[in-house]
Amino acid sequence: MFPKPTLILFATLLTVCSPADALWPQPRNLQTGSTALRLSGGFDITISGSVHNAPSDLHAAVLSTQNFVKTDKLGRLVVGRGSVDAQAVSKAKSLSKLTLSLSQGATAHSITSEAQKAIEDRDEAYTLTVPSDGSGATLTASSTLGLYRGLTTFSQLVYYNDGTTYILNAPIHIQDSPAYPYRGFMLDTSRNFFPVSDIKRTLDAMSWVKINQFHWHVVDSQSFPLQVPGFTDLASKAAYDSSSVYSPSDVADIVSYAGARGIDVMVEIDTPGHTSAISKAHPEHIACAEATPWATFANEPPAGQLRLASSETTKYTAGLLAAVAKMFPSTLFSTGGDELNTNCYAADANTQEDLVSTGQTLEQALNVFTQTTHKAIIAEGKTPVVWEEMVLVHNVTLESDTLVLVWISSDDVKAVAEKGFKLIHAASDYFYLDCGGGGWVGANPDGNSWCDPFKTWQKSYSFDPTANLTAAEAKLVMGGQHLLWTEQSGPQNLDPIVWPRAASSAELFWSGPGGNVSEALPRLHDVAYRMRQRGVQAISLQPEWCALRPGVCDLTA
Amino acid sequence: MFPKPTLILFATLLTVCSPADALWPQPRNLQTGSTALRLSGGFDITISGSVHNAPSDLHAAVLSTQNFVKTDKLGRLVVGRGSVDAQAVSKAKSLSKLTLSLSQGATAHSITSEAQKAIEDRDEAYTLTVPSDGSGATLTASSTLGLYRGLTTFSQLVYYNDGTTYILNAPIHIQDSPAYPYRGFMLDTSRNFFPVSDIKRTLDAMSWVKINQFHWHVVDSQSFPLQVPGFTDLASKAAYDSSSVYSPSDVADIVSYAGARGIDVMVEIDTPGHTSAISKAHPEHIACAEATPWATFANEPPAGQLRLASSETTKYTAGLLAAVAKMFPSTLFSTGGDELNTNCYAADANTQEDLVSTGQTLEQALNVFTQTTHKAIIAEGKTPVVWEEMVLVHNVTLESDTLVLVWISSDDVKAVAEKGFKLIHAASDYFYLDCGGGGWVGANPDGNSWCDPFKTWQKSYSFDPTANLTAAEAKLVMGGQHLLWTEQSGPQNLDPIVWPRAASSAELFWSGPGGNVSEALPRLHDVAYRMRQRGVQAISLQPEWCALRPGVCDLTA
């Protein structure tokens, strides 16, 4: 009745999924052929002599790419794995080198410094060519950051079988640059703490899919793990314990590790809400600290917000933000501004006294607080970044170049754009990695979460960044990011809850919208399997039977 | 405005969460005092001389418990961790030993043999006493299996601070035995493969919460990783690869590792559906193998079911099941029987010919197939276990002692009980660990799953095992289990997707229903934190801030 359906299906899949199509994010411009090339035993990646004073992080990136080429040992995701390529590869010419050069006139700055530029000044474009005749592959760019992106692409071209490392589909010509300048990932290290090693492993994985922004939500009401020079009492009194602290040298280590991987680190000190932890060291600055019932005074326990109407508190906060700003070379600094609770201030005698004595409303006081604190970070060379409430709920005067993170709902994007602010997509209905995993507040018998259901990779992948926007408004979209709030996460589930899901926004904002989930799935399997080869515990998206048979497990197959 | 709410809250929590209350599952009978005891440096667990010929697995369990007592080093989950106990502990008497004995007249069989008995013959009761005067603690039971359960409990009493291991709340008197004889966990090793080490680590974690049954869904349509003597072509042709195979010695290793931890291993060879993989070695036995569109012929790709109307296929299956039965000492054997697809047989010429030639309907042929295959395992001393469709959808004659797994919905429990079958709770609406994590078939733009939302620990914990049952029907409930289907799971997320969630059914079926999620949460944190100390990556259920402050993050707090 069903004569050899298997063979028919395999014939199909070989045409729909060629290896160079396993790149992620998909290059904007990709031409491939059908010739296999073996990488020679002495395969070498070299920086052209025309690149003067190549920076050390570029040398490190070259070494690391050479290492991936050798150690990934990824068998291609087809039935039989790499063995199906054995015949073609045995007859293939050998590729002995990849040479990196900068475009004429370009200067070799460090990858780090290129990555830490203002987002619109980052140059990530590159051109990668792998000829089919075995003559050297070439990678050119007008910045070391572009070269870094090209190296990442090159490492994804390589498969392994039975002692041989090879590339299929030469000649390959790729001309690539991102659709959006901001492609981020946010991690909350306050609800639960993550050791530096977990953050570094996450930065590695981010770099493999060309994410260029780490949004570090480092502190919150639950704990204050950041050791800030001049403000060390915060970490010593409000970190979970003395080992759950990021010292200035840890921060420098993370920033430099990120930079060398083409990633900028934007720190967030969320203010004036989400600051209960500060009360452990400075109760004088916090209204309604740990007040009960917490749900009256905050969206999450414990309650506690900066006394924004107090000039002393405003000064203290401005000083804190300036000190934190000095720790991070990024041009971006998030001051938060979400979920401000008015009951907290209404019930706080100090705040009420301050409002009366200055004759201000709470909103007017918030405006002063925001302007003062923003001024402090602007003085440190930062561009402020805020959560959407600061422009949609509060009537605060902000610098016109302030970046706005849209989180409550993607429905709010239009309103932010209409106000003329540049924005970053971070909406809970598409990009919250923690949604659907169960609610975490106690005494909740069913225990489901406010942002059910689970946000699948397909959901975020299908997001339209410019839906309902005019052409002018669309220009305000800087990009987007996945986010991990960690009420129910820690080092135990970091990799599996993030990867490969967060790769879906990485491609969306690099390659541009309109991708098809059926076409993307085989490539995303490749991302996950390669991540595992490199020590990141990315989950299975399907039974291995399906991963080896692209398209066959589609609903319609 | 909010005078020291912290202090008030702490005073409360100290009374609601004493350490001996951190046991999981909660003992059926627990009396505690308020005296601290330090474990002496030479603290020793000994088997009384009155126990003749103590088996080697009991000796091993004693050593392992001594090891946990030394290496858990779990700080108590309160603000300040173990340091809050330092004063009480510094003045405490010292406890130097725990002595195990069997009740008078009891014989010391191995834990393994006691665990592998028929479920209603397992004796897991024990009595544990820790006097407050520092005289020796005692553990008695009428079986080594009971002693094993008591050792598990003892290890949960122990906390650590600054070089000292201690117990609080002596005198402690525990008399304990399970409410239900079957407390299981099911793992699917076919959709994605799990190395033996992952299974062993899971068995460890299961034993720590007194789960006594490993339901091993070892093969399915996607892969056949079980090497069966006499049927080795199945694994060699239908395992994902040669390293993704459980050899007979792997099975013996797993069975013995489980047995020594008080866990019986019930294997499942799901028939006649879910058998596509067999077609790789024996296409003659499989109808509609990999037929397309798969959704017409199966609930999951790839399609393929045993030709149940063929006497040759029936004989082959009976032989296979008998051979598998010989590999597992358990009295239980699951033959599956779920999701039989009739389109597959309607479209299969061989099956239609067989039905015509024997003059049978498909249901009659299924009856013959089932009776023949069940007879084969009954001849090997097994009691058949089936999924619910075998009694609710099909009109199959089953032995009256057949156990039925209710999976489709907890609403089906009543109907199974009304038919007089013993049953195991395994319903997808309460106990499926994979639900809510996204759907996995391709070309599914939103990608959510059929059994959304996520099944939280609170949901399974609040399950009522005898809802709507008469007293007579309630006696048919043997227990229940969590289940992990692994379309989107693998070694990468095994620990975080299972733990501590699966501990919720472990307590439900040991301690009995009616537990309160608010009371349970602090104890479940203890489970998760202790698991981590022992190398199992159990996730955080709340921010650490909440874990250290029982009740404070409740919705109502």
From TrEMBL, chains A, B:
Question: Which residue ranges does the record assign to the Glycoside hydrolase family 20 catalytic domain?
Answer: 180-512
Tell me which positions the record assigns to the signal sequence: 1-22
EC number(s) per UniProt?
3.2.1.52
InterPro entries cross-referenced by the UniProt entry: Beta_hexosaminidase_sua/sub, GH, Glyco_hydro_20_cat, Hex-like_dom2, HEX_eukaryotic_N
Q: Reaction catalysed?
A: Hydrolysis of terminal non-reducing N-acetyl-D-hexosamine residues in N-acetyl-beta-D-hexosaminides
Catalytic residues of the enzyme? E339 (proton donor)
The protein's superkingdom reads Eukaryota
* Gene Ontology, cellular component aspect: membrane
Residues annotated as domain Beta-hexosaminidase eukaryotic type N-terminal? 23-157
Query: Is Signal set as a keyword in this record?
Result: yes
Gene Ontology terms: biological process: carbohydrate metabolic process; glycosaminoglycan metabolic process
**Key words of the record:** Glycoprotein, Glycosidase, Hydrolase, Signal
What are the GO MF terms of this UniProt record?
A: beta-N-acetylhexosaminidase activity
Q: What family is this?
A: Belongs to the glycosyl hydrolase 20 family.
Name of this protein: Beta-hexosaminidase
Q: Which organism was this protein described from? A: Hermanssonia centrifuga
